[in-house]
Every structure is written in structure tokens, then in C-alpha cells.
């Protein structure tokens, strides 16, 4: 049996057995591995990313499930993006420190906000934004949407993945900017062929540390996305926020 397929099968089996723990949350990610060979890095890279995501979730669970319940991770070729909200600045530091403990992590991007949660309405709004952008880029002939991960926190869209070129990335960012309720679009997308950062040891962190630099694009008033050959999302009913 191909070694990559064997590793994938074993990993998914372990996820299924642990579905009652936070590690089980990566089961949905595992389902996406069916098309992993189409993504840059292939199935081996996708398997490693799923393993990293699972182990980080497990470390958070063992530390304090309640503290990190509102955090999420996106992993792409060993690069870990952490988003979400905590109330204590020390918890922000601890979440990053634990992520660095996992073998194979080459970069940790800290986008954890120290703030009060927006509650269920805020969560639903963020999910709606993510779904709308995902739908828009899926129907664009000029965007290889499978290479993009999207996460939205308190109206800020975070992009991660691999762009074929700058023009493609610009179209994704522009699609995000035109969605109602979006405050800004933050891109951690790398260009195809761009080298992955060399693995570093975890940096020394304090509660005063801020997130690493990023490409932030402010939002603009809503405009039709159809000009970018996107899905006809403007016909959707706008949530009552």
C-alpha cells in the first residue's frame, strides 16, 4: 500500500475514534483530503497539515477546553494561522506557545483577538460571510478556489493558501471586500512556487506581543461581485443584522 495512503487512513481512523474530543473537530477537514491531490503540496502535505491541526487541538483540550473554545486553526504546508477571541492576554500567548510544540510547524501566525465574544449573532454573521466568499470564488473561472482557506472573525476575513499569481489573489481579496459587514480582508496567501519559511523554534512571547505583519485591505461598500465571474450571490437574502 502506498505509504501516503496508509498514513492518511491511519490518521482518519484515529480521528474517528476520538470524535468525542476536540481532536474530532478535524474530521471535517479530513473529508476534504479526497481532493488534496489537486492542491499545491499534494496529499502528503495535506495529511501532515491535518496531523498538525489535530495535535494542536489536543494540546488546547488538555490545557483548558473552555479557554480555547473560540479559537480555530488553519494549517497550510506547516504554516499555522490561529484566529478567534480570548478574554485574557495570557491565554493568547499560551495558545501560540502550545501550537509551537507540535512537530512539523514551521510558522505560527497569531491573529487571536483579546476581546469580548460577539455571541451567537456574531458567529452566524461570520459564517455567512465565509460561505458567501467561498461560493463566490468557487464559481469564478479565474480563481483556483481549492487552494484557499477562509476564516472570518468579528467581520475580518483571513485568507490562507496558495495563489497562482497576484492577479488571482487580488480577485479573491476584492470579492471579500464587497461583502456586507466585512471590516477588512487579511491575506496570508503565498504565491505558487514561493518557498515555505524554514522551520524556526518558538519565539519568546509576552502578553504584550502583537500579531505578525500582514497584508490588510479595508472593506468597501457592498458592490455586485458578478463582474468577477463569481456566483450570483447578490440574489441571496441579507441577514437581519
Question: Would you give an account of this structure?
Answer:
The protein is of the alpha/beta class and 241 residues long. It has 2 domains: 1-65; 66-234, no CATH class. The protein contains 6 helices and 7 strands, in the order αααββαβαββαββ. The strands form 2 sheets. The protein has a 4-stranded mixed β-sheet with strand order 4-5-6-7. The longest helix has 23 residues, at 42-64. The termini are far apart. The relative contact order is 0.12.
TL;DR of this structure?
This protein is α/β, with parallel strands linked by helices. 36% of the residues lie in helices and 20% in strands. The protein has helices at residues 3-17, 27-31, 42-64, 89-99, 119-138, 166-177, and strands at residues 71-76, 79-86, 107-114, 148-153, 156-163, 184-191, 215-218.
Secondary structure blueprint with pairings:
Layout: H1 3-17, H2 27-31, H3 42-64, E1 71-76, E2 79-86, H4 89-99, E3 107-114, H5 119-138, E4 148-153, E5 156-163, H6 166-177, E6 184-191, E7 215-218
Parallel strand pairs: 2-3, 5-6
Antiparallel strand pairs: 1-2, 4-5, 6-7
Order of helices and strands: HHHEEHEHEEHEE
- Biggest sheet character: 4 strands, mixed
The percent range for helix content is 25-40%
Spatial sequence of strands, sheet with the most strands: 4-5-6-7
Global mean pLDDT: 77
How many helices? The count is 6
Query: How many domain units?
Result: 2
CA-based gyration radius: 18 Å
The counted number of beta strands is 7
The N- to C-terminal Cα distance equals 52 Å
Could you name the ranges where pLDDT drops below 50 across 5 or more consecutive residues? 5-35, 204-214, 221-238
Query: Could you say which structural class the secondary elements and strand pairing correspond to?
Result: alpha/beta
Strand content: 15-25%
The general outline is globular
